[in-house]
Amino acid sequence: MVNLVKMDLIELAVNGEKRLVMARPADTLLHVLREQLGLTGSKPSCKNGDCGACTVLIDGQPIKSCLMLAVEALGHEITTIEGLKDSPIQRAFIDKFAFQCGYCTSGFIMNCHALSVIHPDAGDETIREWLQSNLCRCTGYEEITEAIKSVLAQEPKENNG
Amino acid sequence: MIPFDFAYYQPSSLAEAGGLFAELAAQGKEPMYYAGGTEIISFSRLYQLFPRAVIDIKKIAECNMLEQKNGKLVIGAAKTLSQIQESNVFPLLSWCSGRVADHTMRNKITLGGNICSRIPYREAVLALLVSDSEIIIWGKQGLKKVGLNQVFHQTLLLEPGEIVVQLVIDQEVTRVPFTSTKQTMDGLVHYPQDRIGYPVVSIAALKKKNQINFAFSGVCSFPFRSTEVESFLNNPSLPWDEKIHQVAEKLPAEIINDMEGSADYREFVLKNMLSDIVKRLEG
């Protein structure tokens, strides 16, 4: 049984490394990533699960880190934007000019990266459903959609559901 | 950031979780069971909840089941809405679950959490109400299985310390004709990818033995399936147009009147949606 009754050291698996952090049980994963580990690529914005700027991957699934406790991530593999290196979706965001101010970009990239891995054959409906999890107030949605589609186009297709 | 401290416990059995709850409650810690935790975190951040301890049920095996056996579909309370939607073992539940929040949030929100939520809409529960699902609850006396419609009245009626363990659905019901539709401020939602938003009106309907079961969200300040509404709508001696025209008189509470939709507008949408549903299920 995992118990964390007060601030204590916990070991998180972040971007392929074991990292010790001093966390309160009530600390969100977003807070610990930024304030303890200096991984500021995950952005705080609404802190309410609405905007997706803080999206990270937990065992490959996109999760809004503002609504996950750090202690919940024990035993799971956390991937932040800092853990992606030269991924196809990062290159596609550059090629398609899929950002303006850039604040939402890391969250979008994490979500799009997960989509391309989990559903390499995703069709328009699936892309639309996934992208609704993130907000871009510069409204660069068309370019972001083009970026994910360009990555998916490189993937072998089984069906276009 | 949550501006106060609480203790976190992650038991691996129902007995352990229940024992912890009793112990922590006796210490005045006001414990809460925690599954997806999205609502506990967001409400705590806003000072609208003050648990001094949370008990995470995600590692309890019974709460994580998703299986079909002996003609029943069993879904653990800690299963996420995404897991349920993707498994598609009960299409109506997939539809209703798939319209809650957004895709990434559904990777965290659990079925048990949605049923027990403080938010008025709780759309996943609609599919469970119309399908006459049963709910398995763990309490001081051990496990009990009851009809969800018996214990869900505006909210799920739980005794202190009780844990929602599983939902059980008759597999026959997962194969009968159904339909479900939702309208938000921005328009009509037929599929999860259409639009995100709280419902102006959301209805799940299922046709079983020549009767249509209806459950509603967004109409009153709680999701409901009403015997009075359902008996009235299924009364064969009145034409559908007339029943739908009068349906507002049978509702269990006042229609919500807020910035997402006035009461008059919600009633208008409710009647139109009922007409569409009846056309789809009655031909």
UniProtKB/TrEMBL annotation, chain A:
Annotated pathway: Alkaloid degradation; nicotine degradation
Top-level taxonomic group: Bacteria
Membrane-spanning segments: none
GO molecular function annotation: 2 iron, 2 sulfur cluster binding; metal ion binding; oxidoreductase activity
Alphabetically ordered keywords of this record: 2Fe-2S, Iron, Iron-sulfur, Metal-binding, Oxidoreductase
Ribosomal protein in keyword set: no
2Fe-2S ferredoxin-type domain boundaries: 8-84
Family annotation (InterPro entries): 2Fe-2S-bd, 2Fe-2S-bd_dom_sf, 2Fe-2S_ferredoxin-like_sf, 2Fe-2S_ferredoxin-type, 2Fe2S_fd_BS, Beta-grasp_dom_sf, Diverse_Oxidoreductases
Classification via CDD domains: fer2
PANTHER family linked: OXIDOREDUCTASE WITH IRON-SULFUR SUBUNIT, XANTHINE DEHYDROGENASE SUBUNIT E-RELATED
Name of the molecule in the record: Aerobic-type carbon monoxide dehydrogenase, small subunit, CoxS/CutS family
TrEMBL record, chain B:
Keywords, in A-Z order: FAD, Flavoprotein, Oxidoreductase
Keyword match Transferase: no
Keyword Chloroplast: no
SUPFAM superfamilies documented for this protein: CO dehydrogenase flavoprotein C-terminal domain-like (SSF55447), FAD-binding/transporter-associated domain-like (SSF56176)
A GO molecular-function annotation: FAD binding
Stretches assigned to the FAD-binding PCMH-type domain: 1-174
PANTHER family registered for this protein in UniProt: XANTHINE DEHYDROGENASE SUBUNIT C-RELATED
Name this protein carries in UniProt: CO or xanthine dehydrogenase, FAD-binding subunit
Organism: Desulforamulus aeronauticus DSM 10349
